[in-house]
Amino acid sequence: MSALMRVAPFRRQDVPARLSLLTIAAGAAAALAAVGTVAVYAAVLWRIATNAYGATGDFLSFYAAGWLVRGSHAGDLYDPDTIEWAQRRLYPGDFDLAIGYPLPVFVAWLFAPFSALPFTLSFFLWMALNAVLLAGVVWALNRELAAVPASVRLAFAVTAALSMPAIATLVFGQVDLIALAGLLGGYLALRERRPALAGAALSIALVKPHLLAGVALMLLARREWKTIGWLSVIGLPLLVIPAFATDPATLAGNVRILASYPGAGDQLSVNAAMMSNWRGFVASATNSNDVWLWLPGLAAIAAAALALAATRWRMMSGPAAFDRGYALAMLLPLLVSPHLHTQSLVLMLLPAALALKWGVPASAARECQQTAVTWLLASYAALFFLPVAATAGLSLTVFVVVAAYGAAAFWWPRARASQPRIPDPTSWLAAEAAP
């Protein structure tokens, strides 16, 4: 290293210049990602509008589920053959494999009115409503960043709204933004010590129950019995009553289809090699969805992540620690779920906002603000290029999630308004240059 330093001398004052180069590189990558995102979005919209082959999104599953519960086949909501029959009957075009419907029965009833409209019109209507919800979530997160410098707030808003997970939620017609809205509402209510409102807000996340698992475990670890009680009082009837009113057999059917998902592939399209978790990495690297190839690694990751989270939850004292604990609770399902696609990574927006809130105070130095923007641009680019790489045969997105979880677990900015806390990507260079 000393020989290298003699050839290319480096001093502390060179760090801002190096940071500027990193910012430029991250900005260039983010610009390419933005252009690619817009291109992908436009192409998908055109395919949906023309009912192209396979341009069904996940929305077809929800649309068909809504149609089934409205008709005489409600009891077969979770039967793979009935699901495929309904989807082929309702989609104006054609596709390869049917998309399974794993969500609770009450979500099917949410889509029942949409299924009364023609498929394409219904799809665009759902996307429009999702876009409004995304705008509302980004606005609410920016309110949390009121004390953060304007440049960082703007960078966060743009990268959040145009991120691949957010766009995937729109073009696939998914429900992950609803879950994010519920988890955000639960965070705000818990922070204000309003357990009833927190339970009501968190019950919204039951549209995808596994995305609520981390927060539920945090509530148990923290003995938040009032919030747990209200969540149970509202959530359990939401899961059970619509199911019994539709057909009692649907509860057992929902359990069966969820149990089949780890090895699904013959009848239901799950695209394991495209997943953003450890299963996706192993399935894409080995070209096999054998559960015994990926399950041990996923179990090890889940055990380590849960142990780290439990330690942090026990030390939740003060606003900064509470925000870190909630960030870990939001990220935990993204590591432990055996079924996870790009759209569910939209949950990372709240932990990112919380980290920025504590890491970039209003008095932050210019270098701190620039570092934060650099991290945002680099993360935005990674969340575009890695899912794209998965379509080429190798899914690496899980490592971004692991890095985010590790950062929340081992590094979290403290409430020191006068001290920049965002880690500097050039800090190792400064350390090398120190006398």
Share in helix: 55-70%
Element-level helix/strand string: HHHHHHHHHHHHHHHHHHHH
Largest sheet properties? none
Radius of gyration: 23 Å
Mean pLDDT: 87
* Distance between the ends: 13 Å
Give the CA-based shape.
globular
Q: Which regions contain 5 or more consecutive residues with pLDDT less than 50?
A: 1-13, 415-435
What is the strand content? Answer: under 5%
Number of helices in the DSSP assignment: 20
Structural class: mainly alpha
Please give the number of β-strands: 0
Short recap of the structure:
With 435 residues, the chain is mostly helical. Helices cover 68% and strands 0% of the residues.
Structure notes:
The protein is an all-alpha fold. The chain is 68% helix and 0% strand. It is built from 20 helices and no strands. The chain has helices spanning 2-7, 15-49, 59-70, 80-90, 105-111, 119-144, 150-161, 164-172, 176-191, 195-204, 213-221, 225-246, 249-260, 278-286, 291-314, 319-336, 349-359, 366-391, 398-410, 427-433. The protein is globular.
